[in-house]
Amino acid sequence: MSTVVLLLSAAATLLVGAVLSLAVAHRRHGAGWVAVAAMGGAAVLAWVVVLRTFSAGPDPAVTLLGVPGLGAGLTLAVDGLSAVFLAIAATIGVLTTLFAVEYLDRYPSDSVAKYYPLLLLLFVGIVGVVSTQDLFFFLVFWELMTVTSYFLVVFEGESRAAHQAGLKYFVMNQAATLGMVAAALVLWREGGSFHFETLRPALERLLVREPWLGHGVLLLFFVGFATKAGILPMGAWLPHAYPAAPTSATAAFAGAMSKLGIYGLVRVFLTLVPVSSAMTAWGWVIALAGTASLFVGTLTALKQDDAKRLMSFHVVGQVGYMFLGVGVGLVLLPSNPWLGSLAVSAGIFHLLNNALYKTALFLGAGAVHTRTGTRSLNAMGGLGPLMPWTAGAALVGSLAIAGVPPLNGFASKWLLYATGILGGRGSPLLVILVLVAMFISLVTLASFLKYYGSAFLGPPAENRASGGGADGPPGGRPAPAPSRGRPPMGDVGPLLLLPQGVLTAGCVLVGLFPWVPLGAIQEGVVGVLAQVDPYGAAGGIPPESLGSHPALGLALGEAGLALWAPLPAALALGLFALLVYFGLQRAAGAEVRQVPVWVCGEEEDPAALRYGSGSFYLPFKHAFRGVYPTVRVQPPPFPSPLRRALNPDRWLYLPLAGWVVRVSRAVARTHVGVPQVYLLWIVLGAAAVVAVVLLSFG
Amino acid sequence: MLRTLLLLVLVLPVAGAVLAGLLRPAAIRAAAVAASFLAACLAGWAVAAVHPGSYEVHLGSLPWLPGGGGQGIFGFLLDPLASVLLLVATGIGFLTVLFSTQYLTEKNRDHAVAAGSQGRYYFWLLTFLASMVGLATAPNFLQFFLFWELTTLCSWALISFYRSEESLRAGFKAMLLTHSGGVFFLLALLVLFTSTGSFGFDALARLDPGPRGWVFFFLMVAAWAKAAQVPFHTWLPDAMAAPTPVSAYLHAASMVKAGVFLMARAVAGVWDVPAPWGAVLAVMALVTMLVALSFYFVQDDLKRLLAYSTIAHLGYVLLGVALGALGSEVGFRGGVLHILCHGFGKATLFLSVGAVAYVTGTRSIRSLGGVARSMPLTAAAFFVGLLAVTGIPPFAGFWSKFMILAGALQLPAPLGPAILVLVLGESLVAFGWMLHVGQKVFFGLRTPAAQVNSDPPPAMSGALLVLMAGCLLAPLLGIPLVRLLGG
Predict the structure, then answer these.
(1) CA distance A2 to A11
(2) Mind listing the pLDDT tens digit for each residue in B358-377?
C-alpha cells in the first residue's frame, strides 16, 4: 500500500472511530475503548508510513482533491520531517487516549460525547497538517485542530475559567491563523498556487522585489506558528488553556498539537525561505524569541503552586528551547549547512524528548489529581509512598525535563548547546543565548524539585486544611468527596499508569540511545534541505556522521570537538550514586530515628511546619516579580453619539414613514362616505383621462 | 421535461398555499411539508439535469408589450447562478416548513400559536417560496421585478404574523423600506426598456456606459434596500418580530439574498460595470460590514444579534459581487458561493435559537446560560452554524470567504489590501463576539430560564441535523456550480 492509501485509511479509521464513539457515548468506558481502538489502528497505520518512509524513502506526492479556480489541491506526501512528527503524534495520541478512558470518570456530569469524537478529529487534523504539501489545505487542517482542541479546552461544562481560557485560546489562534491566511494569499497572488514548491520561488521574488511585503509574509507565518507553539507573548493563551482542559487532553496538546507549531516553523522557514541574509535574519528572530520565551516561561513556572499551571509554564519554556534550536540552525545554515542542519535537528530532537517527558508529567499530575482531588501543590505532600509508581514516573520525567544525564532531555540540550557554541565562534550572541538556556536548565531543575518535593516527599498533608486557591479546577467543581483532604488510598489503576510507564521508559531509552531517533530526525531535516537549492544542486548536505556509536560527537575542523557518550556516562553516574549512597551511610553511621517535629525544644504541629510549595524560592520570586506582566484589556466604550449617527432610522426611515403617513391621511380626507362625492371623483377622473387622451392623440 | 420540472417547482408551492387556505390545520401541515419537499427535490433534479450547462425557456409574453428582441416576458432561466439561489430557496424553504410544523404550535413557550391561524402562515410562507422560485429562475428583469415585489408583500405579511403592535410596526417598516428600494428598481427598468426595448439581463450590456452606470446605481439602491445594507439596514433587526422560522428563511437565507442576487445578475449580465460604481458597491459593502459589527456588542436578543450578523454577511456577498464588477472572477464566485454557505450557516443559527426560544421561552442572552446541558443537539447546531458563518474551516463559510479574500488581493493596491485587512479584522472580532455569546448562552451553570428538559421535538431536531450537514457540505454543492461563473 502506498503512503497515501495508508494515510487515508488512518484518517478514515479516526473518522469512523469519532462517529462510533459518538454513537456509544452513553457508555463512558465503551466510548473510550472505541476511541482507543480507533487511535490505535490509526497509530499503527501511521507508524507503517513512518517506517516505510525511513526505509524506502518518501513516496511521490499525490494530489487528491482540487479546488478549481484557486490553484489549491489536497496534495499528500510524507517526507522524513513529516514522518518524525507523525510518529510522535501517533504515539502520544494512543497513550493519552488510553489515559482518558479512566481519567474522564472525574467528570461525571460531562458527557464523553464532547471528548472522544473531538479528540479523534483533532488527530485527523494533526495527520493532515503534517502530510499535506499544500498551504491552503495545511491551513484547513490547522484550523480543524484549533476548532476541536477549543472544544476540548471547554470540555468541563460548568467551569467558567475553562470557558474564558477557551475563548482566549480560540480567538488568539484564530487571529494568528487569519494572519497566515493573508500571508498565504499574498504568496498565492505571486505564485498562482498554494503548493509548497511554487511558494518558494514566489517568496524569493517577493523578497527581492518588495522586501517589506516578503518579510511581512514571513512575520505573519512566524507569529502564526509561535502562537500555536506557545511562544510568549503570542502564547499567552497557553498557561490558561492548558490547565483548564482535562489532563488527558492537555497531555495530547502538549505532546502532539502544540508541537506542530514547530513543524510549521521548520517547514516554512527551511523550505520556503531562500538561503540568504533573510534566512539568517529570521534565524536570529526565532532564536531570540525562543530564548525570551524560555527565560520568562520557566522563571514564571518557578512561582506556580498549581501543578498543571506550573507545567503549562514549562511548556512555554520548553518550546523556547526548540525555537532556539531552529533559530540557531537557520542562522548557521547559510554559512555552515551541516552544523545548521544539526542545530535544527537538535531543536526537533528536543521536541521529541519534550513530547515524551512533558506528556508523562502531565499524566502524572492528572493521576495525582484523580487521587487527591486537588491540583494545588500546597495541599499535597508525602504522596511518594502512597503512589510509588506515579512518583517514580514523575521523578524520571522531572529529571528528564531538567536535563539531568543520562536522560533524554540532556541529550537534546547537549546537542543544542554544542551546535550553538561551535557555531558561535563567529557570533558571540549565540553563545550568550546558549548560556541563558543553560541557566534556565537549572531553573527548570529547581522548579521540578519543588514539584516533586512538595507533592511526593515530606509528611503527608492529611492534616492540612486543603483550601488553596487552585484547589480543584478553578471553576469550583467540588472534588469527589471521599478523596478530599484524606491521604490517597493507593496508586492509580494500571490504565492510568501504563501510559506514564511507557513514556518514562521512552525517556530513559532515548537518553541512553539518542543516536537512533536523532539519526532519523537528521535524515528528515537533511532530506528536506536536499529538496531546495543550493543544497539540492550541491547534491545535498555532506553526510558527515554524528560520530561513531555509541556516542554522539561533533567535530568541526579546528573549530572544536564535542562528544557525548551516554552509556559510559550512565554507568559512571550510577556507580557514583551507589558510592555516595553507601559511602554516606557507612561513613556517617548514624541510625535513622523517627521522632516528632520539634522547634526550639517544643513540639509543633507537623502541618504548620511543613515546607509547602509556596515557601520555595521566595528570593527568586521576589527578584523576578515583573518578568511575566499581566495585562488587562478593557473593551473601548462605544460612544453613544456614534451610535446615534449610525442609526439611519432618525434621518431616513422616520421621515419617510412620516411622509407616507401624511400622504395617506391627505388621501383619506377625500374618503367622506357620501356617494355623491364619490360620483364627483369618478366624473372628474373620467374627464381627466379623456383630456389626456385627447391631448396625446388628438 | 425541464420545462415541466421547473413549472412544477413553481406551481407546487402555490398549490400548497391554496390548500393551506382550505384544509384543516393538521392537513395543512402535511400539505405544506409535501409541497415544499417535492419542490425542493424537483429543484435539485432540475439543477442536476442542467448542470453544467444552462437552460432557458420562454413561456409567455404580453401582446401589447413587444418583448424586445423576440424575448418572452415570462419564462425560466436556469444557469449556475440561478441554480445557487434556487437550491437555497427550495432546500432551506423545505427545512423551514418542516421546522415550522412543530414550532408554530401551542406548545411554543415563546409564542404559542393557535391552530386557527396556521392557514394564514402557510399560505404566505408557501407563496413566498413560489415567488423566490420565480425570482431565482427569472430570465429577465421584468419577471425578476414582479416576483421581487411579491416577496416584499409576503415578507410584510409574515413579519406581522403575530399581529402585535411591535410586529405590525416592523412589518410596515420592512415593507416601506424595501419597497422604496423597489421604486429604484422600477426606475432602472424604465431606463433600460426605453433605451434598449428589452428587459433581458444582456440588455444592460447594450446600454451606453453613462446610462449603464445609472441603471447599475438604481439597481444597487434596490439591492441595498432589499438586502438590508446601510443606510436601509434598520428594517432587518426590527423584522425579528417575525416567527423565528420566518427569520431563518426570509431574513437570512432567501429574501435578503434576492437583493444580492440582483447585483450578481446585473454584474454577470455585463461584466463591464463602470469601475467607479463597482468601487462604490465595494466600499458600501465594507461600510455595512463594519456598521453592523458595531451593533453586535449592545444586543441582548439573540435574534437581533443574528440579524446584524446577517447584514454584515450580505455585505460580504455584495463585496464579492463588487470584486467581480472590478474584474476579479474569484471574488465574484466567492460572493455567489457565500449566498449558499451563509444561507445554510445562518439558517442553522436562527433555527437553533428558535429551538432555544421554543423550549425556554426566551431569547435574551442575559437570562440564558448552560443551555447545552439539557439541549445538546441544539447547542451543537448553534456552534456548527457559528463556525460556518464566521468562516472557520472546514465549515462552509471559510471557503466562500477565502475566495472573496483571494479576489480582493487580485485588485490593485490600495483597495485590495485594504479590503483584505478590513475583512480579516471584521472576521476576527465578529467571531470572537459570537463565540463569547455562544459560550454565555450554552455553557456554564444553568440559569433559571434554562431549567428545561430536552431538545426540541423530532421535526425541529431533524431540520437542525440536516442543516448542520449542510454547513459542512455546502461547498461541495456550491463550488462545482460557481466555478462555471465567469465573464
Answers:
(1) 14
(2) 999 899 999 998 898 889 99
DSSP A296-316: HHHHHHTT--BHHHHHHHHHH
Place of cell 461525571: A108
Q: How confident is the model at residue A466 (pLDDT cuts 50, 70, 90)?
A: very low
Within 8 A of A140 by CB-CB distance, chain B residues are 393-394, 398
Size of interface A-B (CB pairs under 8 A): 114
The mean pLDDT value for A69-83 works out to 88
* DSSP per-residue letters across B336-401: HHHHHHHHHHHHHHHHHHHHHHHHHS--BTTT---HHHH-HHHHHHHHHHHHHHHT-TTSHHHHHH
Is B413's Cβ below 8 Å from some Cβ in A?
no
* CB of B368 closer than 8 Å to CB of B119: no
Residue B193 touches partner A, C-beta closer than 8 Å: no
A163·B231 Cβ contact <8 A: no
Query: What span, in angstroms and rounded, lies between the C-alpha atoms of B370 and A472?
Result: 21
Q: Which pLDDT does position B454 carry in this prediction?
A: 81
Helical residues (DSSP H) of A210-333, grouped into ranges? 211-229, 238-244, 247-252, 259-271, 277-301, 307-332
pLDDT mean over A612-623 = 79
Determine the 3-state secondary structure of B413 from DSSP.
coil
Establish if B173 touches chain A: CB-CB under 8 angstroms: yes
Mutation site for A-interface testing, chosen from B332, B435, B440 by largest number of A Cβ within 10 Å: B435
B window 107-126, beta carbon within 8 A of A? none
Domain total of chain A: 1
Mutate: best of A144, A159, A167, partner B, most B CBs <10 A? A167
Q: Output the pLDDT for position A561.
A: 67
Tell me the residue range of the domain where A447 lies.
275-464+491-541+556-564
Give A440-449 pLDDT, tens digit per residue. Answer: 999 999 999 9
Q: Of B180, B436, B483, which has the smallest distance from its Cβ to A68's Cβ? A: B483
Q: Whole-angstrom Cα distance, residue B266 to residue B260? A: 10
Q: Does A67 or B249 have the greater pLDDT score?
A: B249
Whether chain A has a CB inside 8 Å of the CB on B458: the answer is no
Residues of chain B contacting A181 with CB distance shorter than 8 Å: 402, 405, 424
Nearest CA in chain A to B384: A147
pTM of the predicted model, to two decimals? 0.92
Name which of A111, A160, A174 is nearest B428 (Cβ-Cβ).
A174
From chain A, the residues in CB contact with B370 under 8 A are 157-158
**What are residue A254's phi and psi, to 5 degrees?**
-65, -40
pLDDT at A668 over 50: yes
B235 lies within 8 A of chain A by CB: yes
State the complex-level ipTM: 0.93
The verdict on residue A400 lying in a domain is yes
Q: Mean pLDDT throughout B104-118?
A: 86
- CA dist., res. A524 & res. A345, Å (int): 9
A473: in domain: no
**What gap in Å lies between CA A361 and CA A372, rounded to an integer?**
16
Task: Please give the C-alpha separations between residue A477 and each of A99, A158, A470, B439, in angstroms, as whole numbers.
Answer: 21, 8, 11, 18
Q: Which three cell numbers stand for residue A572?
A: 559512571
Query: Is residue B274 within a helix (H) or strand (E), and if so which, with residue range?
Result: none
Contact A656 B177 (CB under 8 A): yes
Instruction: Work out the end-to-end distance of chain A between its first and last CA atoms, rounded to an integer number of angstroms.
Output: 91
Measured distance CA(A369)–CA(A474) in Å, rounded: 13
Chain B residues closer than 8 Å to A143 by CB:
392-394, 398
Residue A361 within a domain: yes
A506 occurs within a structural domain: yes
